[in-house]
Each structure stands twice: as C-alpha cells, then as structure tokens.
Automatic annotation (TrEMBL), chain A:
Residues 1-67 are annotated as: Disordered. It catalyses: 1,2-di-(9Z-octadecenoyl)-sn-glycero-3-phosphate + CTP + H(+) = 1,2-di-(9Z-octadecenoyl)-sn-glycero-3-cytidine-5'-diphosphate + diphosphate; a 1,2-diacyl-sn-glycero-3-phosphate + CTP + H(+) = a CDP-1,2-diacyl-sn-glycerol + diphosphate; 1-hexadecanoyl-2-(5Z,8Z,11Z,14Z-eicosatetraenoyl)-sn-glycero-3-phosphate + CTP + H(+) = 1-hexadecanoyl-2-(5Z,8Z,11Z,14Z-eicosatetraenoyl)-sn-glycero-3-cytidine-5'-diphosphate + diphosphate; 1,2-di-(5Z,8Z,11Z,14Z)-eicosatetraenoyl-sn-glycero-3-phosphate + CTP + H(+) = 1,2-di-(5Z,8Z,11Z,14Z-eicosatetraenoyl)-sn-glycero-3-cytidine-5'-diphosphate + diphosphate. It comes from the Eukaryota. Catalyzes the conversion of phosphatidic acid (PA) to CDP-diacylglycerol (CDP-DAG), an essential intermediate in the synthesis of phosphatidylglycerol, cardiolipin and phosphatidylinositol. Pfam families: CTP_transf_1. This is Phosphatidate cytidylyltransferase. It is an enzyme of class 2 (transferase). GO terms for cellular component: endoplasmic reticulum membrane. It is found in: Membrane. It is a multi-pass membrane protein. GO terms for molecular function: phosphatidate cytidylyltransferase activity.
UniProtKB/TrEMBL annotation, chain B:
One of its GO terms (molecular function) is phosphatidate cytidylyltransferase activity. This is Phosphatidate cytidylyltransferase. Keywords: Lipid biosynthesis, Lipid metabolism, Membrane, Nucleotidyltransferase, Phospholipid biosynthesis, Phospholipid metabolism, Transferase, Transmembrane, Transmembrane helix. Signal peptide: none annotated. It comes from the Eukaryota. Pathway: Phospholipid metabolism; CDP-diacylglycerol biosynthesis; CDP-diacylglycerol from sn-glycerol 3-phosphate: step 3/3; Lipid metabolism. It is an enzyme of class 2 (transferase). Its main location: membrane.
Length: 461, 370
C-alpha cells in the first residue's frame, strides 16, 4: 500500500513508475516508490502479530498538503510539473545552504541551538511514524513519556557538555555547582521517574504496543540524541570539525547525484535502485578533493580553528587561541609519483588537510550506508519520506540521515587521534579531590613542569 | 493463549510477578490476536519438566502444590549456596559469572524475539545479534580494563596500542556489523529485519550496559556488589513472606556504633525495595505483552536467568550512579596521566589554578614551596 504524496510531482500513480532522475532526487534522498508491491502482500505482513494484518491496516497517510509557498508556485506556474519540482528542490537547496552560512556567521552558540532544533525535529518525525504504524495515539501517557525521555537524555548530555567546557563559567554560580556535582545522580533520578511512570501506565490490553513504543522511543533517542551531542562536542573542538564533515556529506550527496545523472549505468545496491557505482565512485573522488580544498581554506582562520572558550575577563565566549600545529603550514616532501606530476619537490600543507582526506573518505564510502539504512527503514514502514517539512526534500530526517554516522565517526576520530583530554575537565576533576590528594598531585605536577622547563624553579608563577 | 506450565498451580509466589496464571487470551489491543495463536505455536511451549530426577523421586508422594513449593525452595537454597561459593572464589570468578549471566539473559531475550517474529530464516540475523553482543562487550571490557588495570596495560606493547585506539577499534567493529546489516536487508523482510535490529539494540542497552555497571561496582570493592544484590534478593523473599504472614518488628532505640557504609547501605536497600520492583513489573509487563510465562526454562521452578535478574539491573545502574556521585572521586593517577598529555600552556594554566585553589584552602602558603 503506497502513500501517494503530492509534492508537485506528476499526476497519476505517483510512485508506481520509477520517476525519472531529475525528479528531484539528490543522491541522498531515496524517493522512488515500491513499484512492485502494489499487488502482493509483503511477507512481512504475514509475520508477527502486528504485521499479520493486511496492508490496509496500516493507516493510509492522507496526501499531505503541498507545502510549497505560494510565491514559488506562482513563479513556476509556467513550467511542466517535472521541471517545476526540479526547480523547487533546487531553490530549497540553495535556501538551506544560505541559512547554513548565515548561522555559521552568527557563531558557535547559534550553531548549537540549530543542532538542538534539528535533533528535536528528527525525534519528532520518527516518533510520529511510530504513532502511525502502531496507531498509538490513544495509548495513555505515551506522547508525554516520549517527550519526557527526550528531555531527560538531553538534560544529561547538555549537563555533561556544559560542565566540561564551561568549567570556569560554572564555577562561579553556586546553584550550578550543586547541579554539576550531582549531575549523574539527578539525571538518573529523572530517567527513573519516567521509567516508573511507564510501568505504572501499562494498560491491560495494550502491553505489547506500549513495549514496542517504549523500545521505539529508546532506539530513536540512541540514534538522534546521542549523535547530535557528538556533533556538538565536535563543534566545541573547533568549528572546522563541524563544518568539514557536514559539508563533505552534503558534497557527496550532490556530486554522487550529479555523477549518477550524467554517467550512471551500473546499479549499486538493491535497496536504492537509483544509486549507481559511477555516482558512488565519482562522488568519492569529488568529495575528497572538495574536503581537501575546504580544509585548506578554513584552516587559516582562528574563527574556525579554535575551540570555544569562556573568558571570564571579557565575560563572553570567544574563539581565539594559538592554533595547534594541526593548523600550521608544514612542508611535506612529495612521494615520487606526485613529484613527477606536479614537478615540485615539496608542498606546504596544513596537517589537518591529511585528516580531512580521512574524513571525506568516510563520508563517501561509509556515510551512504546511513542513507541506505534510512531507505530500508522507509521501505519497511512503507513511507515515502520521513515527513513533509521541506518542500521538495521531505523531512529533516531525510536530509540528515547520512550525517549521523559521520558525526559519531568524527567524534571517535578526534578522541582517538587528535585530542588529548579536555583541560577544563581535568581541572574540574582535580578540584573535586580530597585536599591531601590535591597536594600530592600539586607536588608531582610541579616537579614535572620544572623538569620540562615549563616552570622556572625560582619564579613564583 | 498461554503456555500452561506444569508448575503453574502454585499460588503463594513471590511478589506480583506470578499473578498471571490465568491464561491471557484477549488480544493486546491489536485485532490480530488470532495470528498470535500462530505466532505462539510449538516453539514457545517448552513445557518439559526440567526438574532433576533426584528431586522428582524424593518428592513423589507429595501433592503437586507442595511439590512445587519444595522444588522452588530447594532451588532457591541451591542458588544462594552457589552465590556464596563464587563470592569465596573471588572477584575474577565473579566477573566471569556476571559475564555468563549477561550472555544467558541476552540469549533468552533474543530467543523470545525469534519466536515472536518467526525470525529463524532471516538472513544473518543470529550471526549479527551475537556479533553486536561481542562488539559491545569488547568496547566495555576494554574501557574497564584500561581504567582499572592502567599500569599493566601501559607495560605491554600490544595492550597499549589496543587501549590507545580502543574507541576507534570498537567503533570500526560496530560499523562493520552495521554495514552487514544494511547489506543483509532483503526485499520482503524489511520490517522484520528492522524490528529485530531494534530488539537487539534495546536488549544490548538493557542487559549489557548494566552488567558492566555491575562489574564497575565490583571493582570498587566486593561489598558494593554483594550488598546491593543481596538487598534485591532479600526484598524478593521478604516481600513474599510478608505477603504470607503479618509480622511486626520492634524498633531498636539506643545509640549504636556503625560503619559509615551502613548509612549508604540504607540508601541502597531503600532503592532495592522501593524502585527495584519496578524492574520486576517491567519484566512482567513484557512477559504479558508477548504472552509468555517465563523468559526461559533454565532453572527448574524459577524460569529463566532473566526472571531472576530482572530487578537486579536497575539496581546495578543505581549503585553505579550512586558511587560516582557520592563516593568515589576521580582517580588521581589517571588525572596525572591525562595532565601529562596536555599542551604546556594548558598545563601551566591548570597548575596555577590548582595552586591558587590550594592557597585558598590553606593547604599551601607561598612560603612552603619546596
């Protein structure tokens, strides 16, 4: 059973025929419909209790209202609907990119809010799908509990982040001190309250549904919330660690689509029939090159390269620092084959550019699996898009499905290969120790610093 | 449709868990209850009586109600005795036992998922579930070992490398499983496969993470392992007894000398009695939802391992959070290690902040620099 969406697409059986490529399929989105499952009942439906109902039991999503703004509609009224859709999609793409640049300009804090907003919207989209699949609207407490759990997990993560990064800011306020010190306990208590409410809300005839929705909520939290916090931690490491991965994924989306459009011939994976090997490989190379260049451009500016800090003297958040050696030009000698090609002995690069190759490679080769996962999910639950938030593109989740894996990878990459421990966190923990332990550590540190020549023995620092 | 187990006849059973002896025939709100009959076909009816022959013979003349009571009682004592033995054997053995319990619980829950979704023929599913179990365990054990056996790890070269890049290696292993899952998606089975993926992950979240918290607690000191677990067991047994008899205990009013830990143990026991049972209710709801009487039939008279450990999980997490919040400070040697890897300016900054902090506290005066 297909939902037929009207998104300014051609009339007729909207998805029954595989729509032609320009029908707004950026490589990241997967909008072809299941053309073959009109008649046959999925074997899925014969299994399990819920799925043993026929397709007609899945509530039909009413054709959603066309969210294209009037302006656009009028401007494009002359074109055929196929091109109209292409244009809508293109314009929205440009709008989103501009919005992105604008927020970058406004700073890390705004970016953090943006990430939070996106996370909440993605959570909402996935939970709504769950509602519909399980017709859970009438389950007691369910909506409240889902949002409550979202709140708890966010509270836990934001607390850890704030405490880590803004230790100096936090030290000053008494109430915050208490909240930070017992943060884990408070978060756990909040979560437990939700857990107990869930248990108390179990209703005799709805047990299984309620458990399904509980699990659905938790898996969604695991996917969206934890990874969005990894994004924010990456962001705090330096805006470049946020920008380069995200733009690599976007670039891969777009270039894979373009390569697929012009050169596509061999299908890549059954799950997404419109992806092709040519697109995949072309996208890979373009993304690596793009990442390399973007890394070069962004490494020059402190604004992108420095971690966010709170300076008590100016009472604000600043991004100023001495750039680490990752962001200072180094001279590398070229391997022989490149020497011949470029006719140069050495080249000056930022070390970060080498890292950006690793990041772009991941974005092109493994990132798409996040997209395939989302496609599989949409097929499993017979939906065309996660939601209809962005005209021409679908829901927020549709645009961010590849980003999630990327965020986790970048975080793991940073903690494994780049970053040492976080200094404010070390300080935080030091201050929590017993005074005698602090004294011991003080003496050890002093000896170490004097040895290293960082501290002069006679100088009172 | 319920399995009617041979031991279903008993009544005075421990807390709320066992009240559902009446078959729950009504659908759970989904109209497809008839298919549930199909869904719970043969595989779930594991009515084989696992009671050892010895016991069977010894109790053969009693009526089946009392026979069951005795079976249950004897097995309880057996489990408690076993518990004491492994405590005697030490933390390492305990850690292994926790690991085995965790694996068995995981297997029990996954098996239920199989049965509910007829997932036997889903390609790769079993392999992938066990693979994910392996990955998550590798990740957690690596972190635990690195934390607690720091010096040992630093000495051995291969261990050092494994620990330095531990997160990256774990993540890569997980990713491989994730990609295998995506590649294993089969056209007509998408939904089932996603359900099972979700099922596996929630099970991992519940079972594996909390068993590792148990191990963390254990490493704090065996008392942090034994007291909470015994509290929950005791609460189980006592709540049952009190449901049977009514008792009154006089309060003791005099000055007592105590270990400070006893105060903490009051908090632990309170949690075990008031909130711990919610874990049991959760498991009961789960069993009702999927129309099973027990998670499995591993322990005669008791059901599966998961049946015995359902309340323990919440407890383990609570104890871990409790220790982290109220008891343990950060590990000083680890802090020093972390300090050494910072950049010079950061080290200097931290050093001067620490210094002014110590001077404030009066632990240090400018004149006592040695």
């Amino acid at each position: 059973m297909l939902e037929l969406r009207h998104r300014g697409v051609s009339p007729g059986p909207g998805g029954a025929v595989a729509p032609p490529p320009p029908e707004g399929v950026a490589a990241g989105g997967d909008h072809e419909a299941e053309s073959t499952s009109d008649k046959e009942t999925d074997i899925d439906d014969r299994y399990g209790d819920l799925d043993s109902r026929t397709d007609s039991d899945i509530p039909e999503i009413p054709p959603s209202s066309d969210r294209t703004p009037e302006i656009l509609k009028k401007a494009l009224s002359g074109l055929s609907s196929r091109w109209k859709n292409w244009w809508i999609r293109g314009i929205l793409t440009l709008t989103m990119i501009s919005l992105f640049f604008l927020i970058i300009y406004m700073g890390s804090f705004m970016l953090m809010l943006l990430v939070l907003g996106i996370q909440v919207k993605c959570f909402h989209e996935i939970i709504t799908i769950g509602y519909r699949v399980y017709r859970s609207y009438e389950l007691p407490w369910f909506r409240t509990l889902s949002w409550y759990f979202l709140l708890c997990v966010n509270y836990f993560f934001y607390g850890e982040t704030v405490a880590d990064y803004f230790a100096t800011f936090v030290q000053r306020e008494e109430q915050l001190q208490f909240l930070i010190r017992y943060h884990r306990f408070i978060s756990f208590a909040l979560y437990l309250a939700g857990f107990c409410m869930f248990v108390l809300s179990l209703v005799k005839k709805h047990y299984r549904l309620q458990f399904y929705m509980f699990a659905w909520t938790h898996v969604t939290l695991l996917i969206t919330v934890t990874q969005s916090h990894l994004v924010i931690q990456n962001l705090f490491e330096g805006m470049i660690w946020f920008l380069v991965p995200i733009s690599s994924v976007i670039c891969n989306d777009i270039t894979a689509y373009l390569f697929g459009f012009f050169f596509g011939r061999t299908p890549l994976i059954k799950l997404s029939p419109k992806k092709t090997w040519e697109g995949f490989i072309g996208g890979f190379f373009s993304t690596v090159v793009f990442g390399f260049i973007a890394a070069y451009v962004l490494s020059k500016y402190q604004y992108f390269v420095c971690p966010v800090e709170y300076r008590s003297d100016v009472n604000s958040f600043v991004t100023e620092c001495e750039p680490s050696e990752l962001f200072q030009l180094q001279s590398y000698s070229l391997p022989p084959f490149l020497k011949a090609v470029l006719r140069r002995e050495r080249v000056s690069l930022y070390p970060f550019q080498i890292h950006s190759i690793a990041l772009s490679t991941f974005a092109s080769l493994i990132g798409p699996f996040g997209g395939f996962f989302a496609s599989g999910f949409k097929r499993a639950f017979k939906i065309k898009d996660f939601a209809n938030t962005i005209p021409g593109h679908g829901g927020i989740m549709d645009r961010f499905d590849c980003q999630y894996l990327m965020a986790t990878f970048v975080h793991v990459y940073i903690t494994s290969f780049i970053r040492g421990p976080n200094p404010s966190k070390v300080l935080q923990q030091l201050l929590v120790l017993q005074p005698e332990q602090q004294l011991n550590i003080y003496k050890t540190l002093k000896m170490h610093l004097i040895e290293k020549g960082i501290l002069q023995p006679t100088l009172k620092v | 449709m319920n399995e009617l187990r041979l031991r279903a006849v008993r009544d005075p059973d421990a807390p709320p868990v066992e009240k559902e002896s009446e078959p729950e025939v009504k659908a759970d709100g989904e109209t497809a209850s008839d298919s549930e009959n199909r869904a719970e076909a043969a595989p779930l009816v594991t009515s084989a009586d696992d009671t050892p022959e010895v016991l069977n013979r010894a109790l053969s003349n009693l009526s089946s109600r009392w026979k069951n009571w005795w079976v249950r009682g004897i097995l309880t004592l057996a489990m408690i005795a076993f518990f004491f033995i492994i405590i005697y054997l030490g933390p390492m053995v305990l850690m292994m036992i926790v690991m085995c319990v965790q694996i068995k619980c995981f297997q029990e829950i996954i098996t239920i998922g199989y049965n509910v979704y007829h997932s036997y023929e889903l390609p790769w599913f079993r392999t992938l579930s066990w693979y994910f179990l392996l990955c998550v365990n590798y990740f957690f054990y690596g972190e635990t070992v690195t934390d607690y056996f720091f010096t040992l790890v630093q000495r051995e070269e291969p261990l050092r490398i494994l620990s330095k890049y531990h997160r990256f290696i774990s993540f890569t292993l997980y990713l491989i499983g994730f990609c295998m899952f995506v590649l294993s998606l089969v056209k007509k089975h998408y939904r089932l496969q996603f359900y099972m993926f979700g099922w596996t992950h929630v099970t991992l979240l519940i079972v594996v993470t909390q068993s590792h918290l148990v191990i963390h607690n254990l490493f704090e000191g065996m008392i942090w392992f034994i007291v909470p677990i015994s509290c929950v067991i005791c609460n189980d047994i006592m709540a049952y007894m009190f449901g049977f008899f009514f008792g009154r205990t006089p309060l003791i009013k005099k000055i007592v000398r105590m270990y400070p830990f006893q105060i903490h143990s009051i908090a632990l026991s309170t949690f075990a009695s008031l909130i711990g049972p919610f874990g049991g209710f959760f498991a009961s709801g789960f069993k009702r939802a999927f129309k099973i009487k027990d998670f499995a039939n591993t322990i005669p008279g008791h059901g599966g391992i998961m049946d015995r450990f359902d309340c323990q999980y919440l407890m383990a997490t609570f104890v871990n959070v409790y220790i982290a919040s109220f008891i343990r400070g950060p590990n000083p040697s680890k802090l020093i290690q972390q300090f050494m890897t910072l950049r010079p300016e950061q080290q200097l900054h931290i050093f001067s902040t620490l210094k002014s902090h110590l001077i404030d506290k009066g632990m240090l005066t400018d004149a006592t620099e040695d």
